[in-house]
Design a protein that fits this description.
By secondary structure, the chain is mainly beta. The chain contains two helices and twelve strands; from the N terminus they run E-E-E-E-H-H-E-E-E-E-E-E-E-E.
Length: 156
């Protein structure tokens, strides 16, 4: 388990996901991954996971992580995550001392009742957004744009 910020890079039907740069040694031997989306109640655990090396510490035991088998990859999912994406590395690129990974998502699992056709239901769950160090942010209020058909003048 290694916390990494990530984001969707492109949408061509294969649902690729790109992870932010990670040290060259991390993940270089594993062609598969689960990308687990933690809820706001897991801030301490997410910070702790990123504060120690799995080379030195059994993170699953130390932090009491609950894992469950994945369906499409050999790497387990985090049971307490709001959502888990099962993925395999589709490409990687070295940038200085870091390596950027792109993943092909093979399966997506979201906890029942937390996701609607419009996205996460933030009245029921909130997600962690990493700021810096031990600081995390939560999704605040939402703003809904008007449909394009309601455009009557040039945007500001």
């Amino acid at each position: 388990m290694m916390p990494r910020p990530w984001g969707r890079l492109r949408g061509d039907g294969k649902a690729p996901v790109g992870a932010e740069p990670s040290p060259l040694r991390a993940g270089s031997r594993q062609p598969e991954a689960t990308i687990n989306v933690p809820h706001s109640g897991l801030a301490d655990v997410v910070y702790w996971l990123g504060s120690v090396s799995g080379k030195d510490v059994d993170k699953v035991s130390r932090f009491g992580l609950r894992l469950e088998p994945s369906e499409r990859v050999s790497v387990p999912r985090w049971s307490d995550a709001v959502a888990s994406l099962e993925a395999r590395v589709s490409s990687k690129m070295d940038v200085g001392e870091s390596r950027v990974y792109a993943f092909e998502v093979l399966a997506v699992y979201v906890k029942e009742g937390l996701y609607t056709r419009w996205g996460y239901d933030f009245s029921k769950v909130n997600l962690l957004l990493h700021g810096a160090g031990r600081t995390f942010y939560l999704v605040g209020r939402s703003v809904r744009a008007r449909p394009l058909g309601e455009l009557t003048s040039s945007p500001p």
